[in-house]
Amino acid sequence: MGIAENLSRLKTEIPHEVRIIAVSKTMPVSDILQAYHTGHREFGENKAQELAEKHGRLPSDIAWHMIGHLQTNKVKLIIPFVHLIQSIDSLKLFGVVEAEAAKAGRRIDCLLQVRIAREETKFGLTTDDAELVLKSYRSGAFPHTRIKGMMGMATFTDNMLQVRNEFSKLVASFSSLRLKYFSDEPSFRELSMGMSGDYKIALEEGSTMVRIGSLIFGERNYTP
Ligand SMILES: *Cc1c(COP(=O)(O)O)cnc(C)c1O
Fold first, then answer.
1. CA distance 29 to 24
2. How far apart are the first and last CA of the chain?
3. 213 lines ligand 1 (CB under 6 A)
4. What does the pLDDT look like over 116-138, one tens digit per residue?
């Protein structure tokens, strides 16, 4: 199956109000163009350098999502064009995004990445950390950012009950933080969860945005 077919099959399966982020990490520009020519415009990458490079070589109406751990010294590479930074995983990173966005005269949309998986390798804020970030955000300390919701990655496992529990934990903390910090602010509404192996469960649990790589582009040669 080709990239265009994969994408159109997914689009028949996924409710149209859910955004599909085509995760193109490690894939060549020619593959991204195949998806682009079907009309798809939302792509995700997990490395700042690769994201900046691909942005430079592809049409400018692509909405680029940063979905991987972002080092503070790489923030400025993507600030001029990035559509949504999904991976705010520390207050320090959020501060650097604010500073670089101010310099660039942009307001940058962000999601808070919350750690829901058991694996130690996965980045993310604890719910308490997320709360600290939100307190400081709501006090007006980050005027060049806009927090639009949360992102989480479930444990990589065949145990779908565990995956469902992790997503449902994320939904619960999303709902309680929204109630507490955004009752007057409807823009906090995105819940980015679900990848190739678990997007169906994520949709059942209330995902608004899925990040899908291998089901669209095929298996990657390595998993970074
Ligand atoms: C690679 C990646 C994905 C997509 O993974 P697939 O299993 O290929 O769909 C989604 N989210 C993040 C954060 C990733 O790094």
1. 9
2. 24
3. yes
4. 988 776 789 999 999 999 999 99
